[in-house]
Prior knowledge:
The complex is a heterodimer of chains A (69) and B (153).
Chain A: H1 4-12, H2 19-28, H3 36-61, E1 66-68
Chain B: H1 3-11, H2 22-37, E1 47-49, E2 52-54, H3 56-63, E3 74-76, H4 79-92, H5 99-114, H6 120-130, H7 138-147
Antiparallel strand pairs in B: 1-2
Amino acid sequence: MVNLSLKLKLVLDPSKSSANKINDEVAKTKQISVPIFSMFADAFEKKAKIYKVNKIKKQTREIPKFIFL
Amino acid sequence: MNSLVIAGILKRFYSQFDMNTFSNRLRLQKIVYILQASGINLGYSFSWYLHGPYCSELTRDAYQITDFSKVKEVGFEQPSIETKFEAIKTKIGDHKNNDFWLEVVSSIHFLKNLYPNKSKADIVKDIKDKCLSFKTKTNEINGIWNEIAGWLT
């Protein structure tokens, strides 16, 4: 179960703006099994993959450029 | 799609062409469909009509050309697409003048994509049911199916 107050403190506290520090702090808490930053990273990675797949799909749907022979 | 572009692509198949005959209009539709089905997107959306996949916008664009003899051939800037086009053109070969072949090939591809779970026998039946003259063409349609296996299907 996520400790919400801890999560908010880590996000708002400028002294802990480093991702590694956040990750370390979060990992220390036994209430959270997956570090919050790791969850964010997974989400970003997933979005990047979706973007890449959509970009490939878009490229195959694009009309190619023509030249007069 | 620019009319000169679509006419220029067609020119690579037919040195002479016009929109005055049903046969020519069918060849236009099916050649463009097969090119798109093979992965070269020309921007046309096809629906199912009496003689297989058809796009009214394509017909409209082609009618813009009044003198096909003045049309310049059109190629593709990207070498990989140009290579793909040449491969498709080679595969179509002399079938470009075979309206039955063109109609069956494009119909097979269209129906297979529309009904991926339908059996070969059912799709062949759908194609035969389209047209009275196709009713006795089971062997020919199956032959064409085998011909395009691995290419368009």
